[in-house]
Amino acid sequence: MVSLNERTQQSWLPLIVLGVGMSMIIIDATIVNVAVPAIMADLRLSATDVEWVNSIYSLSFAALLIPLGRTGDVHGRRRMFATGLVVFLAASILAASAGSGALLVAARVAQGVGASMVVPMTLAVINSLYTGSRRTIAFAVWGSVIGGMAALGPLLGGWVVTDFGWRWAFWVNLPIGLLVLLGTLKVPESKDPAAGGSDVPGVLLSVVGTTALVFGLIEGQTYGWFTPTGEARLLGVAWPLDGVSPIPFAFALAVAALVALVLVERARSRAGRPVILDLSLFSIPSFRYGGAAAMIVTVGEFGLILVLPLFLQSAMGYTAFEAGLVIASLAGGTFLAGGLVPRLGLAPRVIVRIGLALEAAGAVAVGLAVSPSMGPWTLVPWLVLYGVGVGFASAQLPNVMLAGVPPRQSGLASGLQSAVRQLGAAVGIAVLGAVLVTGLDTAMADRLPGDPALGRAVRESAGAAIPGIRDPAAHAAAVAASADATRRVTVVTGLVLLAGVGATLLLPDTGGRRREEE
């Protein structure tokens, strides 16, 4: 049994340490997104090169969530959390000092590795440490941190990059990370006392399968889902096949590796050998149905975060800081939700449903409010509403999902939960990105049928070409087309989130409890 004294269980200090560590990871990712133009100019990178600065981080992060989640169960979750912090901070120093694109990409790989240690361990420790009403509060805080920091990131990024330069997007991690590292002394250690040895085949298959799947999803628009969009280069190496893009091969490799992973893990489990993926977790209803709901929800939740910065900056002419200020109102909603959850006294699954309904309503309301003539604060009340929904749903869905998981398996289950969210995010970016591009194409064809070249430029840039249009009539038409496309994405987002409400109907009533060791 995991040994945790009652005094530690009643303390909120571990939650504060975990929350600040999680905040650092999330803020760093969003700041780097804002810093991309400055990085391109300073290091003289091409658009393809700088895309790998973000993509390689997502790949290394997603690939290691499952094996490192299980490693935390085996060797200690606090130890894994602290190790991840050290790796992330060392990588941040390397990134801040990078003098070339290659060195920056290498640093981002290492940052992804560190983040894949930190993120699942925050959930694993919370799941093993808190019970009852304190568990509901702990997950409410965790969810508020996730949603709030994701919304505040662009605002902080605009300020840091504008006033201090892009390298401070990485230097800023040092003081925060060192404080969190010191705070880990107050986080109790926990592990699976029955953990066995290593599972090398499982680790390799998990890494290959997850990497290939996430690569295919996030790079499909860039390389072409089947037919190449141009010359494909992977980390500087030319793709050898002219008629087919690398994406179908990535998906085929992902399917083969993940099917092999299930077969290998099942065989190893029957033989009594250590496994990296315990398939018995999927026999737990709360974990199985919670995972399905989390996948659907994460697909939808990336809708507004994807399209609003593009619309506000490219079509409405906002600066990165001004756009971040509008989107930061979403963070206000998530923090408000964190304070409301304990006072509602409702079952976690009910809070999840209410949250998803509020998210769907907020997304549709934002879409209806979007127009070329809107004022700077038009979207704020609806973003606050959406943020409250995020604070309800994103916080309590992991609570429900992990409630039936024995504490000894918290690391693996948390890694799987994080992997599901990462996969959902990749699907959301792919699907909603396609909806945005298709919407721009249709709207530009309707509004400027005589200028297909301009329509193509707006579509291929996802609207980023709009500020460069000099003709007033054409510019107005492009802004209106961008509003139409943004509205389409928000409606699809609302529909996906409503589907998530349906998925939660299968969730069992956990009552804020978690399963004890058997």
Automatic annotation (TrEMBL):
Q: Which SUPFAM superfamilies match?
A: MFS general substrate transporter
List cellular component terms (GO).
Answer: plasma membrane
Q: What are the record keywords, sorted?
A: Cell membrane, Membrane, Transmembrane, Transmembrane helix, Transport
All copies of the Major facilitator superfamily (MFS) profile domain together span: 14-511
Transmembrane residues, as ranges? 12-40, 52-69, 81-106, 112-130, 137-162, 168-188, 200-218, 247-264, 289-312, 318-338, 350-370, 382-402, 423-440, 489-507
Checking InterPro entries in the record gives: MFS (IPR011701), MFS_dom (IPR020846), MFS_trans_sf (IPR036259)
Q: What is this protein called?
A: Drug resistance transporter, EmrB/QacA subfamily
Q: Does Protein biosynthesis count among this protein's keywords? A: no
Name the species this protein comes from.
Nonomuraea pusilla
